[in-house]
Amino acid sequence: MKSVLDFLSDLGRNNQKEWFDANRSRYEDSKTKVLFFTEIMIQAIRKFDPEVPPLSPNDCLFRIYRDIRFSPDKTPYKTHMGSFIAAGGRKSSRAGYYIHIEPGNSFLGGGIWCPPADQLKAVRWEIHDHPGDFQEILDDPEFNRYFKSIEGEKLKTEPKGFDKDFEAIDLLRYKSYAFGVPVTDQQVVGEGFIDFATSAFTQLHKANRFLNSALDKWA
């Protein structure tokens, strides 16, 4: 994976079409390596999460091309590579597992990021009805080895339709129910990265199972 980090680092300094075209073989090589790692993770995750079907890594890997139509930043390429593993691949609306490879900013994560209103409401109601079950996941020492807190923005007040005096109202204020653990460049290129990612995602499955159950129940 060192060559992947090297390519992305160079891309960050030369984010233009001419440079990318001249280095397309490096991009293709990096893409192949990330797809291979994604395939390994798909097989590992399927051993403990029966919801994840046989997936093509190509369906999980996000495009490196940025959508610049409505962005003031017109650089054409992302300076990271990422894969989302869940039923439906990168287009999934389910809670899943995310691999993010970026020099100095790699991480493993997942859950549900910025879900649409109906899905967010479903998760909130499930937490409302089973706050102890969800808190137990968040407080699990093995889970906490990797995932310290829910990530993303929070409402300043209670969400519409929920009692502000509810005992676990703070858990309902999140706009996402996502989790992440940073990984260093040394970890990404190290021999133990597969084992680390597998262990992290095994723990993340506890949260994903709760979140996907909420989506199914309140659909």
Automatic annotation (TrEMBL):
List, alphabetically, the InterPro entries matched. Answer: CHP02453, UCP028451
Coiled-coil region list:
none
Tell me which Pfam families the record gives. DUF2461
Domain of life assignment: Bacteria
Q: Would you indicate the residue range of the signal peptide?
A: none
Protein name per UniProt: DUF2461 domain-containing protein
Species source reads Gaoshiqia sediminis
**Taxonomy of the source species:** Bacteria, Pseudomonadati, Bacteroidota, Bacteroidia, Marinilabiliales
